[in-house]
From TrEMBL:
Xref: Pfam families: BRO1, HR1, PDZ
Gene for this chain: RHPN1
Top-level division of the source organism's lineage: Eukaryota
Region (Disordered): 1-26, 468-487, 633-687
Gene3D superfamilies xrefs: 2.30.42.10, alix/aip1 like domains (1.25.40.280), HR1 repeat (1.10.287.160)
Stretches with biased composition (Low complexity): 655-667
GO biological process: signal transduction
Protein name: Rhophilin Rho GTPase binding protein 1
């Protein structure tokens, strides 16, 4: 997903200034003021450093074990490997406990609600953008890379701020702004055959293991992952004891599911387990389940008004059964390899606990509807019977009309509710990390006490009837939350490297010849050419025999150099004095003033104001790949002013058209962008 290529002229400059003045979009979390978040970030960074050190020790020990044949040395190394592996396992458990702790997802209220599973952010190392970007700007765009130090510094500051985003709307805007800038960078500097040459380091969010790759798509994917992870943290911290907080939590988990879905559909060959398709699919299912749980909690807030409404209680039973079904699906995914190998054990246990808990709640609300609900009209019986799943032997359980029979069926549902709640408490007691979650234990204990109290009311001494088998509850929901893709267009950003020119022309995917300066004088019919389009303005037609007409013998007489890794070719001054313009050239300079971002009207006004002295133009001609020269001297151009080739460094050869292109480990899927037409240039009058 690439932001729309738009003019980055005066309007974009004002937008960039507005973003910088706003401050919140460019700054990360101040760890000195946000002490809770600061402790979390510091502990995660410390664990990642220790994991890095232990991995290096393990690699060295494994190499020594394979290299030596001394039995005593091999025994010593084997003991060292065992110790290192134990240390790694403890560090991974500590990281999992950190992700499952209240520091990441502590609710904002004291309400008794079950804890959610937030996802920790991926950590990264600092990155020096300057050397590769300066070299590429000089080599391909023909400009002085040192003149873009301010832009490079702004990009580095933005990336540094994204390492510690605040858990708020401002933090999401910060990550989204950087993601949009990466889209601009990819469109301008990256081609399928050439990357930036930077090595991007990121730590796995689930295991803490480091991963690195030279593809810019890995950086984009990691930032998108953090956008989804930050949504999970925001959703887990909401106050779910009021409708407003529940609505915000549902939206946050939907946004998280949409981010992971977008990542799974568009990125491939990820070098870290947390970004693999199976992991992303599991995270997407988990976020949908948590959003469904929030929907059920919202319906519970209205339950006191419908305590004696049989139909309302049975619908609550179906909603709880839907939540249980969602969590069972997540648990099956987590329990299967390879996901089971790197998902924290507390996550697997918590998901299992919630599946049992909501399955028991479904039977509890079914019991309330049967025992406390008012009499049901005969016309409503077919609707209510659909709440219960039909068994294999019977066509379906009929809903009893007699109060005694309904009480017996309700009591059977209460027994199943008690069994499920006891099973949930037993699972909770197995996991040491979950035993520290007081809120979860309070929720489970309260549900059990409520079911026991209701069962005591129905457990009469003279009840000698045969126990009834309660049927399962049919999962059904009135509001199924689907994933919502993050809204990247809401965060407006200006292309940091807009001075290089519009992306439609001035990108690493294009090669062009810089022609000029050409001096033209006005004739009786004007300058002899017509213009159309904006940013940059295009020469639509050249009048044959006019002042700007091309003279083929002279245009081809000069020495022209091949790009060979660069995008700009430079024609000699002698040739340019005799050559003219041709249809399809883009005007980039008028009388020494850069005009790559000028509108059509601005260029026309400048040309109309020219006197008898004439005008000096500089244009670029796009070169198709089949027409690129193959010999000659290459001379770079800084708007025609760069002095020597030495300032640009050495040339690098371009791979031949027949050579296979290396396949990146992580790539962005461009299928959605295929078939889109380029920007249409609007016609303009002759100056």
């Amino acid at each position: 997903m690439v932001p729309e290529d738009r003019s980055d002229g005066p309007g974009a400059g004002e937008e960039s200034a507005r973003l910088q003045a706003a401050g919140t979009v460019r700054k990360g979390c101040d760890l000195s003021t946000d002490s809770l978040h600061g402790r979390l970030q510091s502990r995660r960074a410390r664990i990642h450093q220790q994991i890095d050190r232990e991995l290096r020790m393990r690699t060295g020990a494994e190499n020594l074990y394979r290299a030596t044949s001394n039995a005593r040395v091999r025994e010593t190394v084997a003991l060292e490997l065992s110790d290192v592996n134990s240390s790694l396992q403890l560090l991974k458990e500590e990281l999992a406990g950190l992700d499952s702790s209240g520091d990441t997802g502590q609710p904002e209220s004291e309400g008794v609600t079950a804890p959610m599973i937030p996802l920790g952010l991926k950590e990264t190392k600092p990155l020096d953008w300057a050397p590769p970007l300066k070299e590429l700007i000089c080599r391909h765009f023909g400009e002085d890379g040192a003149s873009y130090e301010a832009e490079i510094r702004e990009l580095e500051d933005l990336r540094q701020a994204t390492r510690t985003p605040s858990r708020s709307k401002a933090g999401l805007e910060l990550l989204t702004a950087y993601y949009n800038q990466l889209c601009f960078l990819e469109a301008r500097f990256v081609t399928p055959a050439r990357s930036l040459g930077l090595l991007f380091h990121w730590y796995d969010s689930l295991t803490g293991l480091p991963a690195q790759q030279r593809a810019l798509a890995f950086e984009k994917g990691s930032v998108l992952f953090n956008i989804g992870a930050l949504h999970t943290q925001i959703g887990a911290r909401q106050n779910r004891s009021c409708p407003e907080g529940i609505g915000r939590a549902v939206e946050a988990f939907q946004r998280a599911a949409g981010a992971f879905s977008l990542l799974r559909e568009n990125f491939s060959h990820a070098p870290s387990p947390d970004m693999s398709p199976t992991s992303l699919s599991m995270l997407e299912q988990l976020m949908r389940a948590q959003a469904q749980e929030c929907v059920f909690e919202g319906l519970l807030l209205q339950a006191p008004r419908a305590a004696h409404d049989c139909l309302a209680q049975l619908r609550l039973a179906q909603e709880a059964a839907q939540v249980a079904a969602e969590y069972r699906l997540v648990h099956r995914t987590m329990a299967q390899p390879p996901v089971r190998g790197y998902v924290p054990f507390p996550w697997i246990t918590l998901v299992h606990v919630k599946a049992e808990h909501f399955h028991a709640l479904a039977h509890y609300h079914a019991a309330l509807g049967l025992c406390d609900g008012a009499s049901v009209a005969e016309s409503e019986l077919p609707v209510l019977e659909k709440v219960f799943l039909a068994s294999a032997e019977a066509r379906g359980p009929a809903l009893p009309q007699e109060r005694e029979e309904r009480s017996k069926l309700g009591k059977a549902h209460l027994r199943r509710a008690l069994l499920g709640q006891e099973a949930a408490l037993q699972l909770h007691a197995v996991c040491r990390a979950l035993r520290r979650e007081d809120l979860l234990q309070a929720v489970l204990a309260r549900a059990l006490q409520r079911s026991l109290a209701k069962y005591s009311e129905l457990d009469l001494e003279d009840d000698f009837h045969e126990a009834t088998e309660a049927p399962d509850i049919q999962p059904k929901t009135q509001q199924r939350p689907e994933g919502r893709t993050p809204s990247f267009s809401r965060v407006k950003v200006a292309d940091i490297f807009h001075r290089l020119g519009p992306l439609s022309v001035f990108s690493a995917k294009n090669h062009w010849r810089l022609v000029g300066p050409l001096h033209l004088s006005r004739g009786e019919g004007g300058f002899g050419f017509t213009l159309r389009g904006d940013s940059p303005v295009l020469i639509a037609a050249v009048v044959p025999g006019g002042r700007a007409a091309v003279r083929p013998p002279h245009r081809r007489a000069g020495k022209v150099g091949p790009p060979r890794g660069g995008g700009v070719l430079w024609d000699s001054p002698r040739l340019l004095q005799e050559a003219g313009l041709k249809e399809g050239d883009y005007i980039v300079s008028v009388n020494g003033q850069p005009c790559r971002w000028w509108k059509h009207a601005e260029v026309v006004a400048q040309l109309k104001g020219v006197g008898d002295e004439g005008v000096s133009l500089q244009v670029v001609t796009l070169l198709p790949a089949a027409e690129l020269p193959v010999s000659g001297d290459r001379r770079p151009a800084l708007g025609g002013l760069l002095r020597s080739q030495k300032e640009c460094g050495q040339e690098t050869p371009v791979p031949s058209r027949g050579s296979p292109r290396p396949r990146p480990l992580l790539g962005w899927n461009h299928k959605a962008n295929r078939g889109k037409t380029g920007r249409r240039l609007s016609p303009a009058p002759q100056p």
